[in-house]
Amino acid sequence: MIERLKGLQYAPDALDRTGMAELIVQAQGLSRRFGRRWALAGVDLELVQGESFLVVGANGSGKTTLLRLVGTALSASRGQLRLFGLDPSRDLFRIRAELAMLSHQSGLYDDLSAAENLSVVARLAGVEDETELWLERVGLELRPDPVRAYSAGMRKRLSFARLLAQRPSLVLLDEPYGQLDPEGFDLVDGLIRDLAQGGATVLVASHLVGRAALHCDRALLLHEGQPRWLGPATHIVQAWQTLHGGVNS
Amino acid sequence: MAILRKDLLIEWRGRSRLVALFCYALTFLLLFSFAVGPDASALQKHAAAYLWLAVLCVSTLLLVQSFQVETEQGALEALLLLPVTPTALFYGKALANTVFISALGFFALPTALVLFDMTPVGPTWMLALVVVLGAGSFAAPGTLYSALTARLAAQQLMLPVLLFPLVVPAVLAAVKATSLLLEGDPMGQLPIWLAVQVCFDLIYWSLCGLLFSRVVEA
Fold first, then answer.
1. Which one of A91, A94, A124 would you mutate to disrupt binding with B, by most B Cβ within 10 Å of its Cβ?
2. Does the pTM exceed 0.90?
3. Given CB atoms, is B73 within the 8 Å cutoff of chain A?
4. Among B31, B39, B176, B177, who pairs with B130 as Cys (CB 3.0-4.6 Å)?
5. Sign of torsion over alpha carbons A33, A71, A95, A196
6. Count of alpha carbons within 13 angstroms of residue A32, beta-carbon side
7. How far is CA A28 from the centre of its chain?
8. Is residue A214 assigned to a domain?
9. What is the ipTM of this complex?
């Protein structure tokens, strides 16, 4: 695992995984190159069922790349990845049935209403359509107008509803607090907590280090694509300050 | 079928785009008649070619649009992260595109007949069959290439550059079959051209279905 990091004190792994639930994510030397540049290099990661894990780092540090690799939206240039004990190159369909990802883009159809967007997801994911319940969970009302008319924050909330509709076992949240109001921040906090308590493994990438750390078990600090620190989420602010010298909320 | 339903619903919600495309097809046909001039026999002689050229050109815009909807808000990536196979996605989208291009053909055909002052000799259902087969032969490779060029800045230019050479044989078969139905078939050639259309459809639909996963997962 990642330790003995230059300029950073080693923080021991907070989770003793012996006898714990099954491994959901296993990554060894996970790396991705875009052209000549390594966006991510040599990440080792093990996430168990029900764990919430935070990934932090400055812009371009490789957070999104890591989430997209784990989310099977990208393939690794080097290293190994197993999800739910399965190889993504062989069991992609089975893996994707279990994971959901919230990315920078909403993934919604602008011409459709919120209910229609969620119905499409429910139909394709093969789950029962519980549109009103999902919308209520993210603080939205059932409205007939198209998503095009929604504000950025409302779109973000609807993206969360879309994610809930998939009933995932592995949840990947890329900047979940982005575009949301303070009430929305509380919503995200609650969702991270509830998903993890419900048995889902949650991987969060966020710039709101202090806030996200309150709801995560462990954290990984990335710097220019390299893993620089891995340890309990409660220590991540200290690790960040050691690396960057600044204070993050 | 869920993908097909989704695409039909999206187009229904944004139907003003379809209306604009139908008007574009009408403009195309009008331009052909203006370019040829008042010589009605020349227009009638090449009516099938003008009709299919109009359908092909307008179809490319329709095909570009079909993947713009998917890439605008990252919906394609979100769709692929659902338990949906790329093959199912291809056939759903290609079927939806076939429906739209067929609708375009069903609009353009009677419009051309009125503009060029023609009455078809062959049965109407045969003309409808030729339109659907022609639409299918544009929709399958069009869907594949639309996905291939979806992330390019010059998608609207690249799609016709890639698509047109590939569908030349299908256009030829559609023009010949339509021409025989409009002007008469004294030599009984129609079944051959219909068979050619069916063959191209089978080849395009099977090959493009196989290649699609490589395109979207790349």
1. A124
2. no
3. yes
4. B177
5. positive
6. 22
7. 18
8. yes
9. 0.77
